[in-house]
Design brief:
Elements (H helix, E strand, L loop, with lengths): L1 H21 L1 H32 L5 H21 L5 H21 L15 H8 L9
Length: 139
Amino acid sequence: MKSVQDENRRRKLAVVELALQSGIIDRVSRVLSATYLLHVESLTLVDDAEELLKEHGLMVGRLITLSKKLNIAYNDFFEEFGKLIPREKIEQWEADYAKFDEMFRAFAELDDEFKPNVENIDVVAIEKKYNVKLKRKDG
């Protein structure tokens, strides 16, 4: 029994060494790092959307629940696969994310200074149309 366990342990070490020498571990590390960057960017965008929705009374509870479930699933996934990523790669992630976020937001035309265009909105007409009284920021 002991020799079978020892052989399995040595086989696992040999497979890991093959993966290291062939570049598989480095490639997996890069793919997972890219996936993690995308996930964090996605969560940031969802947070931005939730903030806008809350601010304007449009928040949907189901979105919050699904976002939390997605985050838990991704955390579990990356916790397990993070064991394969060398420490120095994880430390590079923060700088990579800052660059990625800046480039992605420029690509998606998502500036940080968004302000709703409310100058030409006829709130009174909308209130009459729906027979409701809306909260107004100006009072």
